[in-house]
Design goal:
This protein has 340 residues and is of the alpha+beta class. The protein has 14 helices and 9 strands. It has helices spanning 5-20, 67-77, 105-109, 115-133, 137-140, 152-170, 176-185, 187-193, 231-238, 247-260, 263-266, 271-300, 309-320, 327-339; strands at 31-35, 43-48, 53-58, 85-89, 94-98, 199-201, 210-213, 216-219, 226-228. Helix 4 runs antiparallel to helix 9 (231-238) and helix 8 (187-193) crosses helix 12.
Length: 340
């Protein structure tokens, strides 16, 4: 897709400045291609020279520190595989990055031959978050990321966000008493997830945010990284609303993660305790995703994510049946859902 002429002129100007400053090879720009955006308001373009390609992100101009660049520098310095950044001009909202191609893990999963191949792909993705979660806490504590946390307050804010944009706006539920009671049902889950042992989490680690370049996995969309229980990223990966992992593989992968994260890091004792908190995290995380789908539709009339709502609700229902402690929440949530 070709960009608008004004967009092309701006990109050419910014790229030429990068070239003159020696940030990229001294080759003229030959073509610009507009890429399909993600769920954010950022715009992406692929730039072509005679021998190389790059990706440009255009965001809102700002004089403030850019969290994407700050987090990228930290992760890159710790050998976490993230895209290289060649140049940036934050006053013009310009970031020139490594071209990772167009193939996501989700797309690669579409061509697998068997469940063993699925397992191996997910195991590789888990190795990346294990590297992230094993980072020395002293190093993480020197960054601003350590000041942000998935504590009870933040987790509950996400629940109320979903009640607003999924239950109220998307399902058109206006009963304030029922909405308040539903919100309260999530309190025990958020309290349990405010565990004392937290790691640096990606926050949105799923199959659409892992790029596959040759045999390399590269992590994107990491700018909202913050502290949280290890299960946050594991649930994001294994229980996203885009792809259903084979049941046997999922059990093996959860155990693989648990066995390879030192107990002093997760601090959750037995594997059974770890799984119980995994279920809590799955409920909170999937419900938050439903809120995001509702928000995108409500604010941008973007229909792309609506197809994942039914799958997400079915995933939630199956998990809520695992423990009696979820009975009240399950009955209340699905009474609302099935009646609307």
């Amino acid at each position: 897709m070709k960009p608008e002429q004004t967009e092309r002129f701006l990109i050419e100007e910014l790229y030429n400045q990068s070239r003159l400053n020696g940030k990229v090879s001294d080759e003229n720009l030959q073509d610009v291609e507009k890429l399909t955006g993600d769920a954010s308001t950022r715009k992406y373009y692929r730039l072509f020279t005679r021998t190389k390609s790059y990706v440009v992100c255009l965001d809102k101009p700002s004089d403030e520190e850019n969290t994407f660049i700050t987090v990228q520098k930290f992760l890159y310095s710790k050998q976490i595989r993230v895209p290289q950044i060649y140049d940036h001009n934050l006053k013009k909202g310009y970031i020139l990055e490594e071209d990772l191609g167009d193939r996501t893990l989700l797309q690669k999963l579409g061509g697998i031959k068997n469940k063993q191949e699925e397992y191996e792909l997910y195991q590789k993705a888990i190795d990346h978050i294990l590297a992230l979660h094993r980072l020395d806490k002293n190093d993480v504590n020197k960054t601003n990321m350590s000041k942000l946390s998935f504590d009870k307050k933040k987790l509950k804010e996400e629940i109320d966000f979903s009640i607003k944009y999924f239950i109220q706006n998307f399902l058109n539920v206006s009963d304030e008493v029922a909405l308040g009671k539903l919100s309260e049902e999530f309190n025990p889950i958020c309290e349990r997830l405010d565990h004392k042992n937290k790691v640096l989490t990606h926050r949105d680690y799923h199959s659409r945010n892992i790029m596959v370049k040759s045999k390399d996995f590269i992590i994107i969309d990491f700018q909202d990284a913050r502290m949280g229980v290890p299960q946050y990223d594991l649930v994001s990966l294994l229980d996203d609303c885009y792809y259903k992992v084979n049941g046997e593989n999922k059990k093996r992968l959860i155990k693989y993660y648990y066995d390879n994260l030192p107990s002093e890091i997760h601090g959750q004792g037995s594997f059974e305790s770890f799984k119980d908190l995994y279920y809590d995290m799955q409920i909170q995380r999937v419900f938050k995703a439903l809120g995001s789908f509702g928000y995108i539709y409500h604010t941008r009339e973007d229909h792309r994510y609506l197809k994942y709502i039914g799958f997400g609700m079915e995933k939630l229902r199956v998990t809520l049946l695992k423990h009696e402690r979820y009975d009240s929440l399950r009955k209340m949530l699905y009474k609302i859902y099935y009646e609307n």
